[in-house]
Amino acid sequence: MTSATALRAPSPPQSDAEQLAQLIAELRAAEQRRGATTREIRIGEFTVPGWRVPLLHLAGLQTLTRNEAAVLRFLGWGRANGDIGTLLNMTENTVRTHMNNAIRKLDLDGVRELNSLAGLLFLPLE
After folding, report:
1. Neighbours of 46 (CB within 10 A)
2. 107 — phi, psi (to 5°)?
3. How far apart are CA 46 and CA 112, in angstroms?
4. What are phi and psi of 39, to 5 degrees?
């Protein structure tokens, strides 16, 4: 062991909140370097800050229909399928159909991935 490593005190363990804050800061810095903060992405009739959109799903998100995008937005807000159907004046089965179409277009593994992506895109940060 060298004298420099012997003198270094172990860093205190970070809380989950501190680790998450550090990760968010690193992600924002990386997105700023690639210029994503200066652009906005249209998803259906909604506009999303570019830094929220994973490049992997960019092309698929732009192919979503108006209803698929609306369902995705309400999913991102944490709404249940029945609530989404009521808000969009459609049946719960139609909501599921729009979800399945979005899953196919975005090449996702299922509803859980769709919910995660919807939260990333539309969940309010404040």
Report:
1. 17
2. 55, 50
3. 22
4. -115, 160
- Give the residue from 41, 35, 75 showing the smallest Cα distance to 59: 41
Compute how many other C-beta atoms are within 10 angstroms of the C-beta atom of residue 63. Answer: 12
Please answer whether residues 51 and 31 qualify as being in contact, where contact means their C-beta atoms are separated by less than 8 angstroms: yes
Render each residue's pLDDT in the chain as its tens digit; 126 residues: 555 555 555 556 678 888 888 888 887 777 677 665 567 888 888 888 888 888 888 899 999 999 999 999 999 999 999 999 999 999 999 999 999 999 999 999 999 999 999 999 998 876
**What's the whole-model pTM score?**
0.69
Spatial distance between the Cα atoms of 110 and 66, rounded to a whole number of angstroms: 20
Contacts of 40 (CB under 8 A, 6+ apart): 47, 48, 49, 50
- Residue 33, judged by CB atoms within 10 A of its CB (0-12, 13-18, 19+), counts as exposed
Q: How far apart are the C-alpha atoms of 57 and 55, rounded to whole Å?
A: 5
* Block residue for tokens 């979503």: 64
